[in-house]
Amino acid sequence: MNEQQFKEQVIPLNSRLLKIALRFNYDIDWAKDIVQDVYLTLWKRRDKLNEVKSIEAYAVQSIRNTCIDRLKKQRVMSIDEVSIQIKDEDSQVEVQGEKAELVQKIRTLIPQLPYMQQMAITLCDLEQMNTNEAAKALEVKEGTLRANLSRARKKIVDKLQKWSNFEAAPKSQAYVK
Fold first, then answer.
1. Which CATH number is associated with domain 3-74?
2. What are phi and psi of 48, to 5 degrees?
3. Rounded alpha-carbon distances, angstroms, from residue 34 to 39, 85, 111, 113, 137
4. I want to staple 145 with a disulfide (CB 3.0 to 4.6 A). Which of 45, 85, 125, 135 is the partner?
5. What is the mean pLDDT of residues 80-108?
């Protein structure tokens, strides 16, 4: 594939690729960086693109894979922003004591989850996507995503309870945000 063919076949996909990247993260600069990285990758592989049946499908899959890879890398950095909160019927109290130890424990727990649960909790709780958007980004049904998210949260809370005798009172609800 030469430069002219690349400009005609790949560059017009910009808006579609950008929309897909924005489904994973609402930061426009982040999405543009992902699209730019994929363009660079496609340009480096331009000789092999002639063998691809659908360049558009190939580019879309490349965007999706790059977004997921980038989110996995960011998950480690974003986990420092995780706060454990206790919702009480009268007030909301942020648990500040032992926060560094708790963050470190959560950092070790998320990678122990099955892949879909890791992605569900990362997209919904850390990246603040709603379940509909996260399901589309992961190309699963929303019910499947909700089930994985619920299982992930339950496993983390269960392991935290075992780890530190962390117990939520019946009137309280502990959650990872």
1. 1.10.1740.10
2. -90, -15
3. 9, 33, 23, 26, 15
4. 135
5. 51
